Amino acid sequence: MMESRVSTSPEKIIAPGSTIGVLGGGQLGRMMALAGSNLGYRFVTLDPMPDGPCGQIAEQIIANYDDKDAARQLAALSDVITYEFENVDAEVAAMLMAESYVPQGSELLYTTQHRLREKRAIEVAGVRVAPYAEITSEDDLRTAVERFGLPCVLKTATGGYDGKGQWVIRSMDEIPEAYATLAAAKTELVLEQFIRFTKELSVIAARSPRGEVKAFPVAENIHVNNILHLSIVPARVSFDVKDQAEALAIRIAESMNVVGLIAVELFLTEDGELFVNELAPRPHNSGHYTMEACRTSQFEQHVRAICNLPLGDTMLLTPVVMVNVLGEHVEPLLALMAQEDEAAVAFNVAPKVHLYGKKEAKEKRKMGHVNVLADHLDDALAWIDKTQIWRNQ
Ligand code: AMP
Prior knowledge:
Elements: E1 3-5, E2 19-23, H1 27-38, E3 42-47, E4 59-62, H2 68-77, E5 80-83, H3 90-99, H4 107-112, H5 115-124, E6 132-135, H6 138-148, E7 152-156, E8 166-169, H7 175-183, E9 189-193, E10 197-207, E11 212-215, E12 219-224, E13 227-233, H8 239-255, E14 260-269, E15 274-280, H9 290-293, H10 298-307, E16 320-326, H11 327-337, H12 342-347, E17 349-355, E18 366-374, H13 377-387
Parallel strand pairs: 2-3, 2-5, 3-4
Antiparallel strand pairs: 1-11, 6-9, 7-8, 7-9, 10-11, 10-12, 10-14, 12-13, 13-16, 14-15, 16-18, 17-18
Helix pairs in contact: 1-10, 2-3
Bound molecules: adenosine monophosphate.
Adenosine monophosphate (AMP) binds next to strand 15.
């Protein structure tokens, strides 16, 4: 994989045996704690939900994310603090930085919490984003739509995820309703040109305080109803596209002085051009494939990066397809797990199941994922099809 180093003075190392505090106790915190526990770290998580995915395997402070007393308690228990979501309250972040060690800092959060700030930072790194405009009125919107042409995507600058807080504008008649609906969120709005992409890709890069940077192999992502369904690795794109995608993720990590992971979501056009869609300063769903398919998982890499240990080798060991398990997939998956998996034998694949310990299997809720390891991607895809679990989505 691509690699580069910049020389910064080596900073402190958080040695195994230390305690890592994680703001947020969902599946990303859980998998981080599982990987970090193997390296000998202890974990404490702050999350309002008792017995959640991370709380089941780590010490837990049960409190809201913006509870300052609870955050102070987390700081007192932790040698280093990280987070598993980017919408960390700014005051809590500042307080944690004052009272504990937060190597990721608060600047990256400030940037990635807001689409406009994020796009500007990506451009400063010399990387392309879809043409965009800041929208502060319906008139602005009309003018920008006329400039970009239809369709366009109107997005809230903050708070959106999995396609929420978005409106694809396909005709001028939709403008008043699109504006009124998204403006009700009381955040700034951004209009993006619609990119007619042929594939959605992502690259996860890690950078440590000592300045070491490494990228994981590019994933090809397929979404259903705006939720990630499959990550296919190696991505079925040219070597040139892979190199470009990895190089731009490294450039972003270096330019933004990232510590820990940065996930870069990309659109690939027919002409082979890459545009960044968005960033996430944390482990990412499209990096779950690394757990069995790479020499180092994204979770171990994140722990290594924030603790300033040397980064692990990101080499891909095997073709893999990661398939997300949503609430509606749990029952059929459990039924499949209870019997001999003849399809796995027939296609010569190894489906590695990860379930997050969430109690209620609500529809569309992310409950787990399966990394289907195979000699050939087609075999992994054939297994997914044969199980019927993910049909009729
Ligand atoms: P986001 O929340 O920004 O990741 O967007 C969710 C999904 O909407 C993306 O994965 C794309 O499939 C689609 N999308 C978002 N922005 C654009 C765009 N500018 N052009 C085309 N499709 C987009």
